[in-house]
């Protein structure tokens, strides 16, 4: 095959045309043989065309009669698998089988019906037909014309004309994806211009080809509710500084889409320096372009992940040892298979361990829980492998592991509550504040003379199933108290109460019907216009029932014409994203679209088709192609 590929690279347009002639000639010869007639003349191997036959005397140019050949009494049969060597049977049923090469149309004797002889003929012949096989992307230039010639010869010209309508272009699918993407982009831009105010969330990452990509999502008002949609996937050509990221983003939004930065009311990103730098960060540049009426939110999920990093050295040591154990088993294919079989033989509920990674926020808690559940199986496997890691599985070590599994499971629950779309700042602050209060309550219980561990079910189970001494319990309780103090300090640092106090002044947005009495409005700091509208709104029983059965954002958008001042203030507070959850989901899709096998792909159109919430306007797409 390598020789054929090297030969094919030297072929040109002449060889392609000659290929079509050979195929047509072969079809004609097969048609003649099917009708019971033999073509007059023999096939010239050099040209592939039929030449006139000799006069039948069997005399050569020298006039000497050739010596008679000894013929075998039994004719060799033709087998169907000879076709893989490029030979078909060209004889009539009444004659002995004779192989004919479909490449050069040369007919061989019956005694050549041996796989070795047929294969030798195929390997020693320059095969123009391989041009159809090794270049599958030239369907439009070579395969389609050859197929049209064959169909016109075997059937008719009318059938051949139908083949010309088949789309065989190399970029047919890519072109259609681009057309759909452009239509979705046009719809989204028109919606944003009609809606006016919008907010964005953005995040930057590096793909498999080491190219920096920026994902941006947008939230805007559409059809009496907030709509969230994929805005763009932009490639950052050089560095990833704040100036370069803003330049790429501004070229797309302001120059290409014609959007006004003044309508951007909220930005949500992580806390990276290129995003939040006070001098040249992306947020600073967007605020300069949009004006002062814009809010930046540090992603709640990122802040929660950063707050969880404070861990005492003794607990951190056990955590790293757990990761070493997992890597020992999962890092080797043989160890992984043997461990799976061991778990199955021992009747374990699970047979796989989980990898730990810092990027996936939930992985740490799940890894610890899975290791504790399979502690007996892991210890048996490490002991069988004579690994020094087996010595880690002592009672104290497992006791500490049980606490780590519990606390990181609680942190995972908080993380899951912060995820999802259509989030609002009130809901996320409620979850964070509830967890902070839980930490303080748990710490107070652990500081009592008789500490309670009810909040740690795995720890309680370990104490009940094992003979844990009071000294070990007191030692672990001290580690837990130290860890809780660090967690409380970190959560107070990343979720300061000052911001929640500012939000509490806007609590009328969450439920405006709690302030029916005039005296209750004094501490809200409302303007005279807002006070007037809030008094009227809180007295409307019909709207109160609507508020109970509608989403918060939908409620305020639905009354924008009746109470414009309150509705405007509420929308400005609710429209900014609180997390970059959508961007993280987008990057998960991005890794599936742009793989190492497609590392040169421009994934922006594919990403829009995969993630856009708009529906393509098929009539407009078809109409644009018909014009």
From TrEMBL:
Residues 45-72 are annotated as: Disordered. One of its GO terms (molecular function) is protein dimerization activity. Residues 536-602 form the HAT C-terminal dimerisation domain. SUPFAM superfamilies: Ribonuclease H-like. InterPro entries: HATC_C_dom, RNaseH-like_sf. PANTHER family: EPM2A-INTERACTING PROTEIN 1, LOW QUALITY PROTEIN: ZINC FINGER BED DOMAIN-CONTAINING PROTEIN 5-LIKE. This is HAT C-terminal dimerisation domain-containing protein. It comes from Myripristis murdjan.
């Amino acid at each position: 095959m390598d020789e054929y590929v090297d030969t094919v690279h030297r072929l040109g347009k002449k060889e392609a045309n000659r290929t079509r002639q050979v195929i047509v000639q072969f079809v004609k010869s097969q048609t003649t043989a099917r009708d019971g007639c033999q073509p007059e003349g023999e096939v010239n191997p050099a040209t592939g065309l039929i030449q006139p036959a000799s006069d039948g005397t069997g005399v050569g140019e020298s006039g000497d009669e050739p010596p008679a050949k000894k013929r075998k009494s039994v004719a060799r049969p033709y087998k169907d698998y000879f076709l893989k060597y490029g030979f078909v049977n060209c004889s009539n049923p009444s004659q002995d089988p004779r192989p004919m090469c479909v490449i050069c149309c040369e007919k061989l004797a019956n005694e050549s019906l041996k796989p070795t002889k047929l294969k030798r003929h195929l390997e020693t012949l320059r095969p123009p037909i391989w041009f159809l096989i090794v270049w599958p992307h030239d369907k439009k230039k070579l395969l389609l014309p050859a197929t049209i010639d064959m169909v016109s010869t075997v059937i008719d010209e009318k059938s051949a004309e139908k083949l010309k309508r088949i789309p065989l272009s190399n970029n047919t699918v890519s072109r259609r994806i681009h057309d759909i993407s452009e239509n979705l982009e046009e719809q989204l831009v028109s919606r944003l211009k009609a809606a006016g105010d919008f907010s964005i969330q953005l995040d930057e990452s590096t793909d498999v080809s080491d190219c920096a990509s920026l994902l941006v999502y947008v939230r805007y008002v559409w059809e009496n509710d907030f709509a969230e949609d994929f805005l763009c996937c932009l490639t950052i050509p050089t560095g990833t500084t704040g100036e370069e990221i803003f330049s790429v983003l501004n070229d797309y939004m302001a120059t290409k889409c014609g959007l006004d930065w003044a309508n951007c009311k909220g930005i949500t990103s992580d806390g990276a320096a290129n995003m939040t730098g006070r001098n040249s960060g992306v947020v600073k540049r967007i605020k300069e372009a949009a004006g002062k009426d814009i809010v930046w939110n540090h992603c709640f999920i990122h802040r929660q992940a950063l707050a969880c990093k404070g861990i005492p050295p003794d607990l951190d040591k056990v955590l790293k040892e757990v990761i070493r154990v997992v890597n020992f088993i999962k890092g080797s294919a043989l160890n992984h298979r043997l461990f799976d079989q061991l778990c199955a033989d021992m009747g374990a509920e699970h047979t796989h361990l989980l990898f730990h990674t810092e990027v996936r926020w939930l992985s740490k808690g799940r890894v610890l829980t899975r290791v504790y559940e399979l502690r007996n199986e892991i210890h048996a496997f490490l002991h069988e492998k004579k690994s020094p890691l087996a010595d880690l599985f002592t009672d104290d070590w497992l006791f500490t592991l049980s606490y780590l599994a519990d606390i990181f499971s609680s942190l995972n629950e908080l993380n899951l509550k912060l995820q999802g779309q259509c989030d609002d700042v009130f809901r996320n602050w409620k979850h964070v504040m509830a967890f902070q209060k839980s930490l303080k309550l748990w710490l107070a219980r652990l500081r009592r003379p008789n500490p309670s561990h009810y909040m740690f079910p795995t720890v309680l189970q370990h104490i009940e199933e094992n003979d844990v001494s009071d000294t070990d319990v007191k030692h672990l309780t001290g580690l837990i108290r130290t860890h809780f103090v660090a967690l409380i300090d970190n959560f107070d640092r990343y979720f300061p109460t000052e911001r929640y106090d500012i939000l509490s002044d806007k609590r009328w947005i969450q439920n405006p019907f709690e302030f029916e009495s005039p005296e209750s409005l004094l501490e809200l700091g409302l303007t005279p216009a807002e006070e007037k509208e809030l008094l009227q709104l809180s007295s409307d029983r019909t709207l109160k029932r609507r508020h109970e059965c509608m989403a918060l954002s939908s409620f305020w958008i639905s009354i924008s014409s009746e109470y414009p001042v309150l509705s405007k203030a509420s929308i400005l507070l609710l429209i900014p994203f609180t997390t970059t959850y959508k961007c993280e989901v987008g990057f998960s899709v991005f890794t599936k679209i742009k793989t190492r096998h497609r590392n040169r792909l421009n994934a922006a159109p594919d990403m829009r088709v995969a993630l856009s919430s708009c529906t393509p306007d098929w009539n407009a797409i078809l109409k644009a192609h018909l014009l």
